[in-house]
Amino acid sequence: MFLDIRELEQKPIRFEQSLPIGEIQFDSEFEQQSPLNASGNVELHVSTEELRVRGKLQVSLRMECDRCTEPFVKNIEEEFDLVYVPSPETSPGAEIAIGPKDSHVGFYDGRGLELNDILQEQVLLALPLQRVCREDCQGICPICGQNRNETECHCRTQLSDERWSALRKL
């Protein structure tokens, strides 16, 4: 769905989207498991040309646990409140200096914004930095490679570094 500035000059736009699996391309590390449902509204402040996009989204993604490498499904539910302003006119490839107050503002070019791009960005930002199947995931044994959630291994992990063994003799 394209959010057109000319249409927003007339009235705010209300959106209700259900994007099927594969409509938005995510990183190869994730696989979309459910439709991406999003709802919200977009309004234009004519005097400042600011676009304000508010809404919420829901989607389920299949990913791999960072500790045990087993696949699991993560449900993402996120609310967002975003502000976009027109891109400053510069020569192609020129850098734009932004101040601290501009760090929470996005930019748009031309006639408007693509809602799917906004939703994709919000899903990626909502993902945790460390993806774990559950909080108490014990991961993989560094010695034998067994999944510690499934079987208990009796490997003895060496906690000390042999490079420091000379200091133990003191």
* Integer tally of domains: 2
Distance between the amino and carboxyl termini: 71 Å
What is the chain-wise order of helices and strands?
Answer: EHEEEEEEEHH
Instruction: Give a short account of the largest sheet.
Output: 6 strands, mixed
- Alpha-beta classification: mainly beta
Strand content: 35-45%
> How much is the radius of gyration in Å?
24 Å
> What's the total helix number?
3
Instruction: Categorize the overall geometry.
Output: elongated
Low-confidence runs: none
Descriptive key words:
170 residues, mainly beta, 2 domains, 6-stranded mixed β-sheet, two-stranded antiparallel ribbon, 3 helices, 8 strands, elongated
Quick overview of this protein structure:
The chain has about 170 residues and is mostly beta strands.
Secondary structure: elements and pairs:
Blueprint: E1 2-4, H1 5-10, E2 13-19, E3 31-32, E4 36-45, E5 50-64, E6 71-86, E7 105-108, E8 112-114, H2 115-126, H3 165-168
Parallel strand pairs: 6-7
Antiparallel strand pairs: 1-8, 2-4, 3-5, 4-5, 5-6
